[in-house]
Amino acid sequence: MAVLNRFAGARAPATFYSSMFNYYALWKAFSSSSLSSEVDLKSILLSRSSSSRPDRPMDRNVQWVFLGCPGVGKGTYASRLSSLLGVPHIATGDLVREELSSSGPLASQLAEIVSQGKLVSDEIIFDLLSKRLRASEAKGESGFILDGFPRTIRQAEILEGVTDVDLVVNLKLREEALLAKCLGRRICSECGGNYNITCIEIKDKEGRPELYMAPLLPPPNCASKLITRSDDTEAIVKERLRIYKETSQPVEDFYRRRGKLLEFDLPGGIPESWPKLLQALNLEDLNHNQSAAA
Ligand SMILES: Nc1ncnc2c1ncn2[C@@H]1O[C@H](COP(=O)(O)OP(=O)(O)O)[C@@H](O)[C@H]1O
């Protein structure tokens, strides 16, 4: 029930108030040299956050987190919701890939970690996230949908220390579908659009369809510009799935214990899952109104 009340706030987003989330506090916390001393850090964060925490969480933009295994579709659904709710979609995986493709000092270090399917250190992630949040703040954005962060208990604790996350959506899909989805993922090198060339059809023992996910094919403009993520090979995806279970699944429990976790089993591809997700989030009316206004 607590969770339902939290995201009922998403029903009235027409007038978004400026976010009470203190980007500056998060940036300072993440970039603080005292990061090595967690005890000090927590006390600093708690004292800062008490002044930045909203008394009425519904009077500001949503602050949501998307959790889920590699390939589940966090990016797809987080990005759709970010457009619907008018909040930035911040994917730490995208931040890592941007840094990788730059000639910045971290690029070669990141290439080695990502190519093994391992997690980047919390410090590097905090640094990339801090920069992204500062850019967001400069554009006057507020609220967020985080995707791919937090991925460790420490990241979750730090985030919890600086701001109130309203809701954590945990997307779930069968493991054989996850691997197939990662292997079929394609990205347009020009516009960054995400597609999937695999048709997933899983049947039960009696041969009845259990899960069907149609391919998400690119428009003609993108078709000749598709690339594959370098970490979407079978061996690396399996390693990412293993690390997710070991390191990131405890984050689900972290939020479950705080009454913030919404479990969502994807019933199929986007056409089947999107309306159900909107329903689970009480956002059908908003989606309907926006579609009608467009
Ligand atoms: N919060 C994070 N903590 C540590 N490493 C991260 C984090 N977010 C992204 N990464 C790094 O970036 C890579 C790509 O992230 P992402 O696109 O979210 O992958 P996935 O498809 O595995 O969910 C990860 O395998 C990891 O190396």
What does it look like?
The chain has 294 residues and is of the alpha/beta class. The protein has one domain (2-173, 245-287): Rossmann fold, CATH 3.40.50.300. The radius of gyration is 19 Å and the shape is globular. It has helices spanning 2-8, 23-31, 38-52, 74-85, 92-101, 107-115, 122-138, 153-162, 175-184, 220-223, 234-257, 270-280, 284-293; strands at 63-67, 89-91, 144-147, 167-172, 185-188, 194-196, 200-203, 209-213, 226-227, 261-265. Helix 2 (23-31) runs antiparallel to helix 7 (122-138), helix 5 (92-101) packs across helix 6 (107-115) and helix 5 (92-101) packs across helix 7 (122-138). Mean pLDDT is 83; it is low at 1-21 and 33-56. A hairpin with a 5-residue loop joins strand 5 (185-188) and strand 6 (194-196). The protein has a five-stranded parallel sheet with strand order 2-3-1-4-10, sandwiched between helices. Adenosine-5'-diphosphate binds next to helix 5 and helix 6. Keywords: Kinase, Nucleotide-binding, Transferase. Belongs to the adenylate kinase family. It holds the Pfam family ADK. InterPro entries: Adenyl_kin_sub, Adenylat/UMP-CMP_kin, Adenylat_kinase_CS, P-loop_NTPase. Its EC number is 2.7.4.3.
How big a fraction of the residues is strand?
5-15%
User: How big is the Rg?
Assistant: 19 Å
CATH class: Alpha Beta
The small-molecule ligands in this entry are: adenosine-5'-diphosphate
First CA to last CA: what distance?
Answer: 33 Å
CATH homology superfamily name: P-loop containing nucleotide triphosphate hydrolases
Q: How many individual β-strands?
A: 10
Structural class: alpha/beta
